[in-house]
Amino acid sequence: MHRIDPRIVIIQIALSGICAFWIFKPLAMLCEVIFLMSFLLYLQHPKEALRLGVWFAFLVGLYALLNESNAPQIIVQPVFLLRKLSPLLGVMVLSLKALTVSELFMGLQKLHCPKSAALALAVALRFIPTIRHELEQIRNGMKTRGVPLNVITFVKAPAMTTEYMIIPFIMRCIKVADELSAAAVTRAIENPVPRGMRVPLKIRIKDIVYLMMVICANIGTLLYSLCG
């Protein structure tokens, strides 16, 4: 696997996130998604790159179909919003796949980020992958009780379905947060001495080349969206 210095990846995530908020042209969104897919492929995550591409293509096709059929705006607008947020989805996937929690914390520490902010980001990165697992557990639990959580059930009884999903999810999140806090304390997260790594962080030539490609890709996409 191609490893990039965590500091470079953190800078890339910040740049891509900023650009994703400012681009609005469909072609610029497509370019940003393609760039993120290319970086995922370079980091040897082909499945995630393919999923991101298929997801964006599906939303583009669905949005075009809804516009052609003059669908109600209450349906069109959520699809437009999801398409707009697709680059941010790519940024999230990149952050989850390119960095471990330890690498993220060390990278933020090397960038002189406040420890409180570094801890919050590290916990968020650790917590995000558990959301899907928790929702799957809730869905299986409701299914065994004869209340399947799917689109049909939501259409028939939206309030009940939302209640059955949200309340257990909130309770599980509270429990997971307590577990993460206990794990952090066990690992001496409150120790004021800066953490070390078995393999010291060192920016190499390929990291600099990678960063230059990231900067050029994001600035080019942003300029095209704003001035093109």
Automatic annotation (TrEMBL):
Assigned GO CC terms: plasma membrane
Membrane topology, record value: Multi-pass membrane protein
Coiled-coil residue windows: none
Keyword Nucleotide-binding: no
Subcellular location: Membrane
TM ranges: 21-43, 49-66, 87-105, 208-226
Keywords per UniProt: Cell membrane, Membrane, Transmembrane, Transmembrane helix
Name of the molecule in the record: Energy-coupling factor transporter transmembrane protein EcfT
UniProt organism field: Eisenbergiella tayi
